[in-house]
Write a structure and sequence with these properties.
Helix content: 25-40%
Radius of gyration: 28 Å
Structural class: alpha+beta
Strand content: 35-45%
Largest sheet: 4 strands, antiparallel
Number of helices: 4
Strand order of the largest sheet: 4-5-3-6
Amino acid sequence: KIMKLLKLNINHAFIIITLLFSSVTNAFAVQKILEVSASKTLSFKTTEAIISFDIIGRGPDTDTSYQDYATKSLNIITHLRSESDEVKELQTTSFLSNPVYNYESKNREIIGFDTISTVSFKVSSELVAIYLNFLSENNIDRIHNIEFSVPDQILEEMKEEAVKHAIDKALLKADNVLRQLNLKRKAVIKI
């Protein structure tokens, strides 16, 4: 359950700890369970972004549509490839050709074709605005997504730190409750 929460919200850890403690009542030792929870949210600055966009070529037939697409994509892809120090993981993730219909016509007539490719690349978070301007200046039709992240190694370290802080906070909370009741923690049963 904890790992599932971490995957959904990577900078937040929520911990439930089950503790075993003993109390003495009428000369009998009774074992009881106390459950406490705690959470820890860590904030961190993203270091990279993946930008995903469409290059669309239009024309009255598939050949013209593809030629329009090829002309647009050549300039954009060539420029992005030339930026190899900054642009990483440049890839085409889909490519398709679609008919364009006149929906006002009763016969749903084809009035042209769109050739579309979806392209994505990774850059430093600090360069996102520069590349969005570049895409805008080159008449990109659609920007799908800008996904900000941190490298996996840093993300794992952040998860571990959030979990450790949440566990420490939950144990401190449990010890405070037990101390107020004049009891002591015997064991941690489950985290």
